[in-house]
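User: quick one
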Amino acid sequence: MPVDRPRTTADKHDRIIDAAIEVFAEKGFHHARISDIAAKAEVADGTIYLYFRNKDDVLITIFEEKMGMLIEGLKQSLEGVDDPLERIRTFARYHFKQVKDHEALAEVLQIELRLSNKFLKEYRPTQLWEYLNVFAGILRDGQERGVIREVDPFASMWAFFGALDEIAMQWVLANKERKLRFSLDASAEAVAEIFVRGVAANPSAIPVATPLPSQFESLS
Amino acid sequence: MPVDRPRTTADKHDRIIDAAIEVFAEKGFHHARISDIAAKAEVADGTIYLYFRNKDDVLITIFEEKMGMLIEGLKQSLEGVDDPLERIRTFARYHFKQVKDHEALAEVLQIELRLSNKFLKEYRPTQLWEYLNVFAGILRDGQERGVIREVDPFASMWAFFGALDEIAMQWVLANKERKLRFSLDASAEAVAEIFVRGVAANPSAIPVATPLPSQFESLS
Amino acid sequence: MPVDRPRTTADKHDRIIDAAIEVFAEKGFHHARISDIAAKAEVADGTIYLYFRNKDDVLITIFEEKMGMLIEGLKQSLEGVDDPLERIRTFARYHFKQVKDHEALAEVLQIELRLSNKFLKEYRPTQLWEYLNVFAGILRDGQERGVIREVDPFASMWAFFGALDEIAMQWVLANKERKLRFSLDASAEAVAEIFVRGVAANPSAIPVATPLPSQFESLS
Amino acid sequence: MPVDRPRTTADKHDRIIDAAIEVFAEKGFHHARISDIAAKAEVADGTIYLYFRNKDDVLITIFEEKMGMLIEGLKQSLEGVDDPLERIRTFARYHFKQVKDHEALAEVLQIELRLSNKFLKEYRPTQLWEYLNVFAGILRDGQERGVIREVDPFASMWAFFGALDEIAMQWVLANKERKLRFSLDASAEAVAEIFVRGVAANPSAIPVATPLPSQFESLS
DNA sequence: AATGAATGAGCTTTCATTCAT
DNA sequence: AATGAATGAAAGCTCATTCAT
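Assistant: Done. Structure below.
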């Protein structure tokens, strides 16, 4: 019964991923050195290349694995919610909650990932589409039920994601610089409300919610 | 009427900017060499440093100068339009028209600019805020007139921009790879319609437009 | 009668030389830019090339002109001194006095000049030889008079200069760093005494001077 | 008994140092490229940076390691010599012998090292002080024995080194240009004799040596 | 599987110098 | 004589990746 085998277990893959998230968040993808990640994961530099093709692959893998988890979580969050319009709200709330709950990961996914040539220009983010397809599915379902008007699910889905993403981006950047952060919760409601009413077949039937206060003033 | 005055005029600044846009769009910011830009602008490498601090400064300057022009153009486009909801539609149409009309520039502003550490992490894009403030102004004006409901102008503005930007991004990326492009015109209408209804005080009064067809299928 | 012609006089040559001494002393020869010198001399960059072949030429000219003055001064200092041994002492005292009285110039001549490839490897410092020949002359004269023994004037001259120069160098470096400086006056006496006795035909006849105290302790 | 083991041994440090001495002597420190050194040492450019911080560090390391050896050798040379005055002569002879026996190294230490900003302005040449302290030690010992008069060991030490160094410098420069070289052996005796008599308590007791002929004529 | 020493490609930027005005 | 905008050469260093052990 081996005592003191603190990190021997072959969880090297995970250790590298976790180390990379921290290092990328701290120094940025471009300034992060493989040797930094290796040191933090307590493996040799070369070992990283047994698990990943190259530095970009580490970043991409972070994206894929974490997106997989996010998709799972999203689906779970939506499980108990039936009304398509309420599902839209749930989606927005879930999205921002993840950003708030996983700062380092959010920084990597929001910022560093976008700074990668490979990701932006060559990679097909299948996982992202799957994530967004959940939204398109909500719309299609709502359209079948007659709750949502005839909107193009694809255009709407990208617009929705763009809105969530931009606000998440601003929040992460502000958070990174320790500037006064605006409320992500309020943002979730605001964005959700615009889209709910924007796609609803009968927007007049939607009860007017009192908007949560205090938004973004500090940024302009 | 001077024919063939190849490089006499002291418009070196503009020549460098224009050359840089082409080179950045073609090779990407990171792979673009100063000497590439200099060659295309028909100046010496060192001359670029008489007009710009460094490579990043060239990129940032492209952003600032072109955004200045876009803001001007946007304001002109809105001049004849009175109805706040119609102004939202005009904004969206204008935004996408610029993307379509200036491919190289759009590629630089959509892609290369985002790949710049300096821009993303250090630069305060005042011009972007000014651009977006036009949208916030539309909302405030509409709220005063009672046409637009109580939405947070800031959150809405970022959501609106995020939606436009994401779709523009997808279009530019698809365009870059010569993949079948979806219709930006249709997207403009779709996004505009969501936001118009999303922020309208009385959405039921908005006539249902027949959505333009054919969206995004090629991307998924 | 021209009023207010502060710098119009065609003393540009001198203005450039003086500016260069200051700039070289302050930033070092390598880091000094021609434009720095031009700015301080209040002339255009190109103007410097009307008066000097290149940057090295400015440095060399400083050496030549200032050495010319030093040689003159040295000869004047020696004028009233007849005894060859005393002339050696006078030489040493004069050398160190110049170092102490002209800090910026000393820094340029002691440090920056030596850092110049051109000066060290290509230039024939005729002026330096003339300066040292004064010492060789003292020796030869002393030998004719029988006061100085059969030493090789050339070897002795370089040894003497080396000794003066090394101590001057240490003092300038210490002075530059604002470290506690040792006494140049005491050093003059010490070095002079070694050489006086070292070359004297009859050293026993030389009265033993009480050495000045406090030397160099701070440097080791 | 392995013949032909060209680069297997992990003596890369030494190989780089030796290559650097040759390259620095041949092309000068400033014109020597890292790739030149790497090629001569038969390692990759980057390998040099595994062993040295930068180009200056290579130069400084040459100084430190070689000075360490010189100090050792000096101490050995002095081992059998008891008389302080004779020890001074031994010091001078040793110094010049090293210059003559290691031409490339002498060129680097005499010339290139002095052309280095880092070395001249920032570096504290501890090893040099140790080398010179040997001389100061000789003086102190001689003073205790009453053989050497009351001279300041510090001033004398720098003067002695300056004298040796200047003559070595002139010889190396002349040697470099293939000009007629003067005799370093004769110079050793000449300089030694000046300092021996210069610091001796009883110079009259020193037998007059016939000076070695032919000095320096070719230089003036 | 793991290591880590070794590799080598890649390019911005400065600034002395020129020369048209 | 004077200007100063324009030129263009030149190389150190980093670090992702490899591969012998």
